[in-house]
Amino acid sequence: MRFHRSLATVGTLLALASVSACGGLPSAGSSQEAGELLKSTLGCESIDIASPREVQQVRAMGLTGVNGGGECEDPAGGDGDVDFLTVEDMEAFQTAVKGDEDEQDDLMVGDDFAVDPSSDDQRRSLLDAGLLFLNCTPNFTAPEGSTSEDGAVEGCTTTDYAEDLD
Description:
This protein is α+β, with helices and mostly antiparallel strands. It has one domain (3-159). The protein has 5 helices and 8 strands, in the order ααβαββαββαβββ. It has helices at 3-13, 31-42, 52-60, 90-97, 120-128; strands at residues 46-49, 66-73, 82-87, 108-109, 113-116, 132-135, 148-150, 157-159. The protein has an 8-stranded antiparallel sheet with strand order 1-2-3-5-4-6-8-7, with helices on both faces. A hairpin with a 3-residue loop joins β4 (108-109) and β5.
């Protein structure tokens, strides 16, 4: 399972926790439901749910608030597998990952889960499904015409804008 290799990346994506601060974001409720949402949105061939041991490894990395996750395997388009985490406490989760600046603009969030897409096509599909990017860049302001809302933690924003989205 690629999940072990992806824990660091997934950790970053946990910053997505700010989602709970925004209304109207998709909610999963469980790892299985998050996986099904990704399967229908991205056309994954299968969903590999993280074991309790793998979830504990994520928590051991200091990512509090996480209660599950997994991987969307072989999504349509061949753009690479997509890791996801379910989050039971978005504020705790976002606080834990706020300092990790790697790939934050690639992290996308729903109300109670975070996703680390592998391509711009996946990112666009997830935006269409209602997920948003988490941005914790100091003094970030979304450009005119983009939407943004305060995250669960001061200094983080959820937005439909990503600077490097082609």
